[in-house]
Design a protein that fits this description.
709 residues, Alpha-Beta Plaits, 8-stranded mixed barrel, 22 helices, HlyB_4HB_MCP
Length: 709
């Protein structure tokens, strides 16, 4: 019971429930046992009444009937006056005795504990035989009377024996009932004792586990209320209601100190939040918000005190390939190191901030001497510091910085204007070769506005399909016949005239319209090719941006199917630089195209990574030698050697080669002599409209490819 009421295991409610269940269980068990015994006593009493008393009465009736039978015999022997009546009475008694015997056997019902009627039956049958013989002899004679007396005595004796047996059995049942009554009384007394013990145990446990702990807790609380220092409230280790109450009071006691600590932590968190709101989470530099505030303050000082400030906008060069190829973790390391170097160079009174991505900004007050000279020195130091290799693990990466510089208040009298001017200057620095700096000039703004106008015109031209496909012949070096055309975009602007592809193609990539332009050119080229024979191929350049789109094969093959152009007639040209940012996706795209019959050519080979790994893994159908090497073959022995090496390598790998930029016969002859398979260039044919391409395929012109310049 003590184990069940263990305060470390059960709550008070559970302990009281356990006690009630145990108490009720004991009462129920004792009640069940007592009831069972009372039922047994009742059964035994009924047995004495219904079995033993009933059979005793039958035996008594038998004895009386046998006695009456003997008396009737005696009457018949003394007087024969009423012989017939007496004999009839004897017959009635005889049948009565027989009926009583049957009734006894019915009551006995095979119960071996009751006396058997067999002894009486045997004596009675012998008696009846003597009786019947006596009647046949005339019912007279002393000798016969003696025989009848003996038969009667034996029958009565048999009944007496049976009566004694019945009496002994009845006495046994009565004794058994007495014992059960005594046991029931003892069991009841034991139940009362156990119940009393349980009640006393409960009272003791309540005092020990409830009353005393409550008194201790109340004492501790009163001492707390009085201002005493109480280390802890007793009873917190308990796992019941009192323990819960003690722990609640313990929490209450500890809350004062906890609230003070929380207050301190809140102040620290607020301070950290303010710092995060003002600083870049990655580099720790002030963020764009702080930079804007500092720049506005500098503008105010410049306008109010006449101090000049330089606003410098820095954008990292070659950072995107590092971030894309080596991962964002390496990119973050580069940004943090660049931020550290900027902090070391910029003066304490100046502001350096990260505006986002790989873009940083500096606000620096002009020196006392020549302000422009001082800013130029600062810009040069920043570029030199950023250009230094950045250690990454066992290797290093190199990035650069293009810087645009605007003067306050000369180039702007508010923060927005100054940032815009610095951004324009930074764009010019990138265009002029990167890793350099440029001061803002008004002409740059005009140029930027002109670029914005050109961008708007390009959007409109692509939407209205005003850019036209032109076709530059691809010539087989072995016999000079045109086997296909490279599709090139041409834009005849309504006011600007012909716009160079190296101007509008990068612009289309930047504004996200290169895919629209490519699909428009491909559709029109497929339609123009209907005028050609079915063995003439088309070559189409794919932008690096497009090569990242997993849906590219579906788009190309869908257009070919719609226009009825066989995929085996199309060559897709890609550059190595388009592959490195996501080689896995590019490989899947090119494999899908090749499996549908489209040929794949590696364009501008020799200017990028020139990786043999790419040649092996991507299974190109053709290699195109970059025009820069072909055009300088006559003046540079190195270029000639590079071209010879590329052709030799391609032959070793079983790849056909195409030379771009063939502009004179000497170059053509040399390429043919070293085994270059195909060529294109001004000498073999300039890019031309579809009508001219049809004429270029005319049989009269197909035989001499060299005169088409």
């Amino acid at each position: 019971m003590s184990h069940l009421l263990d305060r470390k295991r059960l709550s008070i409610s559970a302990r009281l429930t356990v006690f009630a269940v145990v108490f009720l269980g004991v009462v129920a068990v004792l009640g069940a046992l007592s009831l069972n015994r009372l039922m047994v006593i009742d059964e035994q009493t009924e047995a004495v009444r219904d079995r033993w008393l009933a059979t005793a009465r039958v035996l008594n009736n038998l004895e009386e009937a046998v006695s009456s039978f003997r008396i009737a015999e005696a009457d018949l022997a003394r007087s024969t006056a009423a012989r017939e009546v007496t004999i009839a009475r004897l017959d009635v008694l005889r049948r009565e005795i027989e009926t009583l015997g049957q009734r006894y056997e019915a009551l006995r019902n095979g119960d071996t504990s009751r006396a058997s009627l067999a002894g009486f039956t045997m004596a009675w049958q012998t008696y009846l035989a003597t009786h019947d013989a006596w009647l046949l002899g005339g019912a007279s004679g002393d000798r016969e009377q003696q025989a009848l007396d003996r038969g009667f005595d034996r029958s009565i004796m048999a009944l007496d024996v049976m009566a004694d047996i019945q009496a002994d059995a009845a006495e046994f049942e009565i004794d058994r009932a007495d014992r059960l009554i005594d046991e029931t009384i003892a069991l009841t007394l034991a139940g009362v004792a156990i119940g009393s013990l349980l009640v006393l145990t409960l009272l003791y446990r309540i005092r020990q586990t409830i009353a005393k702990p409550l008194a201790a807790i109340m004492d501790a609380l009163m001492r707390l209320a009085a201002g005493e220092c109480v280390q802890s409230v007793p009873g917190t280790e308990r796992r019941d209601e009192i323990g819960a109450m003690a722990r609640a009071f313990e929490v209450f006691r500890a809350n004062a100190a906890a609230l003070e600590r929380a207050h301190e932590e809140t102040r620290a968190a607020q301070k950290q939040a303010q710092s995060l709101a003002r600083h870049d989470a990655l580099t720790g530099l002030p963020n764009r918000r702080v930079f804007s505030v500092e720049l506005q303050a500098a503008v105010a000082r410049s306008l109010g005190e006449g101090i000049s400030y330089a606003v410098m906008l820095l954008d990292l060069d070659r950072f995107k390939p590092v971030n894309d190829i080596q991962g964002h973790a390496v990119g973050d390391t580069v940004l943090c190191e660049v931020a550290r170097r900027l902090r070391e160079i910029v003066r304490r009174e100046d502001t350096v901030a990260r505006l986002g991505g790989d873009e940083f900004a500096v606000v620096a007050a002009a020196d006392g001497g020549d302000p422009r000279e001082g800013v130029m020195r600062l810009a040069s130091r920043l570029i030199a510091a950023i250009r230094e290799p950045i250690a990454i693990g066992d290797g290093a990466v190199e990035v650069g910085a293009s810087i645009g510089i605007a003067w306050c208040p000369a180039d702007g009298r508010d923060a927005e204007s100054l940032l815009r001017a610095a951004d324009i200057a930074m764009y010019r620095a990138k265009r002029d070769g990167r890793s350099t700096y440029r001061f803002f000039e008004q002409s740059m703004d005009e140029e930027l506005r002109d670029r914005a106008a050109l961008e708007a015109d390009l959007r409109k031209a692509i939407g209205e399909e005003r850019l036209e496909p032109h076709y530059q012949p691809l010539v087989d070096m072995r016999d000079g016949h045109v086997y296909g055309f490279e599709v090139l975009a041409r834009w005849n602007h309504p006011t600007r005239g012909w716009i160079r592809p190296d101007v509008f193609i990068p612009l289309a990539e930047q504004i996200g319209l290169i895919s629209d332009l490519t699909w428009s050119l491909l559709r029109r080229a497929c339609r123009d090719s209907r005028q050609w024979s079915d063995d003439i191929r088309l070559a189409l350049n794919i932008s690096p941006v497009q090569l990242k789109d997993p849906l590219l094969p579906n788009q190309i093959l869908g257009i070919l199917a719609e226009e009825g152009f066989a995929p085996t007639r199309l060559e897709i040209e890609v550059t190595e630089t388009a592959l490195v940012s996501d080689l896995k996706t590019a490989k899947a795209i090119l494999s899908s195209l090749r499996s549908n019959g489209v040929r794949i050519a590696l364009d501008d080979f020799g200017t990028g990574y020139s990786s043999l790994y790419h040649l092996r893994e991507l299974k190109f159908d053709k290699v195109k030698i970059d025009r820069s090497f072909v055009q300088s073959m006559q003046t540079s022995s190195d270029s000639r050697k590079i071209v010879d090496a590329i052709v030799s390598l391609a032959k070793t790998l079983g790849l056909p080669t195409v030379a771009e930029g063939i502009e004179d016969k000497a170059v053509l002859d040399h390429l043919a002599s070293i085994g270059c398979d195909f060529g294109q260039g001004f000498y073999l044919g300039r890019a031309m409209p579809a009508e001219a391409a049809v004429e270029r395929l005319d049989p009269h012109d197909a035989g001499g490819a060299r005169g088409a310049a």
